[in-house]
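Fold Annotation — chain and its backbone

Encoding — discrete vocabulary of local shapes
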Amino acid sequence: MRVVMFGYQTWGHRTLQALLESEHDVVMVVTHPRSEHVYERIWSDSVADLAEEHGIPVLLRNRPDDEELFERLKDADPDIIVANNWRTWIPPRIFGLPRHGTLNVHDSLLPKYAGFSPLIWALVNGEPEVGVTAHLMDEELDAGDIVLQRAVPVGPTDTATDLFHRTVDLIAPVTTGALGLIAAGRTEFTRQDRSQASFFHKRSLEDSRIDWNWPAEDLERLVRAQSAPYPSAFTFHRGKRLDILSAVVSEARYGGTPGRIFYREGDGVVIVAGADARTGRNHGLAVTRVRTEDGRELGASEYFTTMGGYLTARP
């Protein structure tokens, strides 16, 4: 099939690479200009550079809603558009233009975790698996019929970075497998159960701020979800920002006020956690490694030289 590809960052790069290695003919690529947004500098392999290396025409757009793009698409005469990590709304006259419509490749197990940063949100929420879905685009974001979906399990110590590498490897087989079904003449696919749908916003600095009223189990997943190269989960100690680089749920249960720097346990220092921590039934968060405001990385036992005092959400 003749394919126009819409995509950005490493997800789009992997999709384009899969298309270039397939039997299909990539006739044009549309991608976003480079961005300095903190989350868009991560996993930022260039779709434009890869396309240009292969002599494929490239159009740069923030939004695909101008007449020039529409005319270029008509001239390209695609059988299908393939999109992955396109960051803005694609209007119906664009996604419905090709003979077979538009195949969107999304890094979640739709209908759950539509929208943005699905791996991080899924890890924060304790999902047992994550994955990649190829679906046909319609007027509702990430809601079209599922052509192909693959999942991988989430392990008890996995970080968002681990899950990125595991799911990005699914992009090629999911993309080419879905295109194979469409090229073979399949037209009926799996409708999404919209009662199970959830939609998530982009991550921002505020989403990495630690709230010590959360249970320790949730905070431990937040720390793993904000793994390097993502901005770390953070708190404040004596008015200065302190990044929490690694932590585990404490073995013992600790009572008191959330945020209290309480007790050394193993290689960690336990921080009281949970809105009902006063009951003494909660586990704490045993912080094991931190980074100070001036960039020093230290073991928690080295940083917290005395017990007592509090970690807070704000200075």
Notes: The longest helix spans residues 171-183. The longest strand covers residues 240-253. The CA atoms of residues 50 and 245 lie 34 Å apart.
